[in-house]
Amino acid sequence: MTAVTVSGLRKAYGDYEAVRGIDFTIERGEVFGLLGPNGAGKTTTLRCCLGLIDPDGGSIEMVGLPVPRAAREARIRVGVVPQMDNLDPDFTTRENLVVYGRYFGIPIGDLERRIPKLLEFAGLQAKEHSNIRTLSGGMKRRLTLARALVNDPELLILDEPTTGLDPQARHMIWNGLRQLLNQGKTILLTTHFMDEAERLATRLAVIDHGKLIASDAPRALIAEHVEPEVIEVYGDEARPWGESVGRSIADRIEITGETAFCYARDPQPLLHALQGNNGVRYLHRPANLEDLFIKLTGRELRD
To answer: Candidates 3.40.309.10, 3.40.50.300, 3.30.750.200, 3.40.50.720; correct CATH number of 2-215?
Structure first.
């Protein structure tokens, strides 16, 4: 049974078509990653799925309910972590959870039982009565995640959940998300951290310019679209080396700034050519999700 089904979704703002016929499904109990550059249509897609804006075409079903027609009923069964924390700064950690829970009509007795578990999940037991203004950025982000779980949602929508966090806080949130998966939750994740998507996502979709351009399991997408071996050549002489030597040996090469990215099925000729060359340095690694993302969406900066 699917948690989310999106078919032919379209949304335009005046003459600008932000989403142009997107289709995807999310199975219950999986992490589905939605990736794309800035302006690709990710946020518009999420807002349509939540019933916050009406689509111009297509259909959406979320937790078995049609959206936007039954969006309010669907949202009761969904937890959302927005890009920016929107905690109430006038309340304590505990009060933020209580007030949010009351929005869902949860009886205070049930909240009293849930809140200690949520604080433990977020590692915030010692901050239960602290004012929000005294919390670090990582603590606020963890509290926002705990708050999204106050209604025990079937589906959790995370919009760039670890942006701005240090590595320790990111890993804590990742561990928390794995716990939720073990409990049978379904997660829809958007992120700009490719290592995060590769670690967490069961399947993912890449969208750009409002269209879905690839969808599958992360490793399957990498194997389909990217050569298996990557050699990054960098330094003052990397560009001329890439133009004169690398381009004739690599299966594919991209040169940006002072780095030549050499993609190959057999890396040995490239490694042999680099031996003894003191004008460049290099890193040999397997292809990853960032290579896939760059190949499909390009290296140009998006605003």
So the answer is: 3.40.50.300
Half-sphere exposure of 123 (CA within 13 A, CB side): 15
Pick the CATH number of 227-286 from 3.30.2320, 3.30.70, 1.10.10, 1.10.30: 3.30.70
Q: What's the predicted TM-score (pTM) here?
A: 0.91
DSSP state for residue 77 in the 8-state scheme: T
Q: Domain limits of the chain?
A: 2-215, 227-286
Find, among 187, 184, 136, 131, the residue nearest to 161 by Cα: 187
Which amino acid, one-letter code, is at 245? V
pLDDT in tens, the chain (303 residues): 799 999 999 999 999 999 999 999 999 999 999 999 988 999 999 999 999 999 999 999 999 999 999 999 999 999 999 988 889 999 999 999 999 999 999 999 999 999 999 999 899 999 999 999 999 988 999 999 999 999 999 999 999 888 878 888 888 889 889 989 999 999 999 998 999 999 999 999 999 999 999 999 999 999 999 999 999 999 989 999 999 999 999 999 999 989 999 999 999 999 999 998 888 999 999 999 999 999 999 877 666
